[in-house]
Design brief:
five-stranded mixed β-sheet; 45% helix; 18% strand
């Protein structure tokens, strides 16, 4: 079959975020309170080369695994939460995002957990990412790339997701090398652009108390 042309994509732009937004939901099926916050990242067209890889590293350092900033501080050290972490939505067509989450232990107010998460972010921006944290995050992403190649379900999904946002196969195959080359300065520069309260949406979920 002859190859067909493709119409240009016309995508709606995200309105400028001028203040933080909050959503509170009470649900009868929620087993426990939970906190979530999404930071909207600048549009892909406004990001520097390899900033998406820097976003993935930032997410790993902040909240992926027991050695991450959020988990080690809130769960292991201060016993404020049963879980705490972060994840990214880097492979999207328009606006990537960074998401934080946490669930307080019984007896801890959700407001106290939120304040503690804010404190972790402030400390991170002041201190910067440590060399050992960045190295560990790069190693984990490299291992994930190897495992993805071995999984007959994951590899096609990753390739399809990349193609859907106009990434080439060559660009995808070079992803581990780009991740390995990201300097700490790029991760922190991106963190300062992303971790801005005015560009965030916070969600609070609480169980519905029996009447």
């Amino acid at each position: 079959m002859p190859r067909r042309g493709r119409d240009s994509r016309e995508r709606p732009g995200e309105p400028a975020s001028r203040s933080a937004r909050r959503v509170k939901v009470t649900s009868p099926i929620a087993p426990m309170p939970s906190f979530s916050r999404a930071f909207l990242v600048p549009h892909r067209s406004e990001m520097a080369t390899d900033d998406l890889e820097a976003l993935q590293l930032l997410s790993m350092v902040l909240g992926s695994g027991s050695s991450s900033r959020l988990y080690s501080e809130l769960v292991l050290k201060r016993s404020l939460a049963t879980s705490a972490g972060s994840y990214d939505r880097a492979e999207v067509l328009d606006y990537p995002s960074l998401h934080l989450y946490g669930q307080p232990i019984p007896g801890v107010e959700i407001a106290d957990l939120e304040a503690a998460i804010d404190g972790v972010l402030v400390q991170f921006l002041e201190q910067g990412v440590r060399d050992d944290e960045l190295s560990r995050a790069k190693d984990r992403l490299a291992a994930a790339a190897i495992l993805a190649r071995d999984d007959p379900k994951t590899a096609p999904r990753v390739i399809g997701s990349a193609m859907a946002v106009d990434d080439s196969l060559a660009h995808l195959q070079a992803w581990p090398e780009r991740v390995a080359a990201i300097p700490r300065e790029q991760v922190m520069a991106l963190a300062e652009r992303v971790l801005i309260p005015a560009r965030s949406v916070t969600g609070i979920l609480t169980p519905e108390l029996p009447s």
